[in-house]
């Protein structure tokens, strides 16, 4: 015999009341938000991505009036966090705050992706775009991509370069292919782990994320030769693009807030509106710039279309970089 709890009775009463007034579950969400929102971060607490997620969680809490918490669910290249969100209730209270480029790449880097990013997730709002960077130690005599290419062609397979993530691997692979280089890739667990070899000159160059690269530039340890975006970035306006240097590309990471695809449109639009308000604030623009990025504003429809294009683009990236499927 089933035990009927007070919570069950209350829930049933609410459902009946909603039906009596002809309210659908989506219509009943017009008072959103009325409970705690969880932002899911696919990286550990204290990581660069975690810093970005927590910054925006605090900002959006202020404009929305909602209580927002950040939950870290690292692992499997973001698939653990992504799957958690796709399986959550589509009510706007579970938001996947992650790089759209990463989830797009996972569609090709895993033999059996646990979810279809385009079908199972909806981009509610985009936040920023961040290129990766080609860097050399400040002690290096190389000052341009032209000089780097000349040096690497002369050295052949005797020269090596450092990478520590997929985007850096892709950037370097595209460069190698277009320049016709035999330079050897050396993978490290993190940017910090590669520092000794880079500064000693054991690595001819590094292809790394903007947060770390810019911090080393400010500390006087790095010289930045190029960024992987189509346009120069506000945080380093003097650094040319790879395209300007003769190697056409527009390879960037971009953060977005994604929700389960069945989330009602009015909730998706509300999240988008909050994000637009936040991105218009001067201190937020400065934060994004300091992190090596540029503000990226879009409608949910535009964001979803951009995600679809990224999924298609990453098929080529994975092939060029010869990344084995997991």
Automatic annotation (TrEMBL):
Species of origin: Neorhizobium galegae bv. orientalis str. HAMBI 540
The keyword Signal belongs to this UniProt entry's keyword annotation: yes
Membership in a protein family: Belongs to the UPF0065 (bug) family.
Alphabetic keyword roster: Receptor, Signal
Signal peptide: 1-28
PROSITE patterns: TAT
SUPFAM superfamilies reported for this sequence: Periplasmic binding protein-like II
Pfam families: TctC
Cited InterPro entries: BUG, Bug_dom1, TAT_signal
Record's protein name: Extra-cytoplasmic solute receptor
Record's keyword annotation contains Signal: yes
């Amino acid at each position: 015999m089933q035990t009927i709890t007070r919570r069950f009775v209350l829930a049933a009463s609410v459902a009946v009341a909603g039906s009596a007034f002809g309210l659908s579950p989506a219509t009943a969400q017009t008072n959103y938000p009325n409970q705690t929102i969880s932002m899911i971060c696919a990286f550990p607490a204290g990581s660069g991505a975690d810093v970005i997620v927590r910054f925006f969680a605090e900002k959006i809490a202020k404009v929305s009036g909602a209580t927002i918490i950040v939950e870290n669910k690292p692992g499997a290249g973001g698939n653990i966090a992504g799957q958690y969100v796709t399986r959550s209730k589509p009510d706007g209270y579970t938001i996947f705050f992650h790089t759209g480029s990463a989830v797009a790449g996972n569609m090709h880097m895993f033999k059996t992706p646990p979810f279809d990013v385009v079908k199972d997730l909806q981009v509610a709002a985009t936040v920023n775009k961040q290129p990766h960077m080609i860097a050399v130690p400040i002690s290096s005599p190389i000052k341009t991509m032209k000089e780097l290419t000349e040096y690497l062609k002369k050295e052949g397979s005797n020269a090596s370069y450092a990478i520590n993530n997929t985007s850096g691997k892709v950037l370097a692979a595209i460069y190698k292919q277009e320049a016709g280089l035999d330079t050897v890739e050396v993978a490290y667990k993190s940017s910090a782990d590669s520092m000794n070899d880079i500064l000693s000159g054991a690595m001819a160059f590094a292809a790394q994320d903007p947060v770390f690269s810019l911090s080393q530039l400010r500390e006087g340890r790095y010289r930045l030769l190029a960024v992987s975006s189509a346009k120069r970035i506000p945080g380093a306006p003097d650094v040319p693009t790879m395209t300007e240097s003769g190697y056409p590309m527009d390879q960037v990471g971009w953060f977005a807030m994604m929700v389960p695809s069945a989330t009602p449109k009015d909730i998706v639009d509300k999240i988008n509106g909050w994000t637009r308000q936040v991105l218009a604030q001067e201190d937020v623009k400065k934060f994004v710039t300091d992190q090596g990025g540029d503000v990226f504003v879009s409608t949910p429809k535009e964001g979803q279309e951009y995600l679809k294009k990224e999924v298609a683009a990453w098929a080529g990236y994975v092939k060029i970089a010869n990344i084995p499927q997991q």
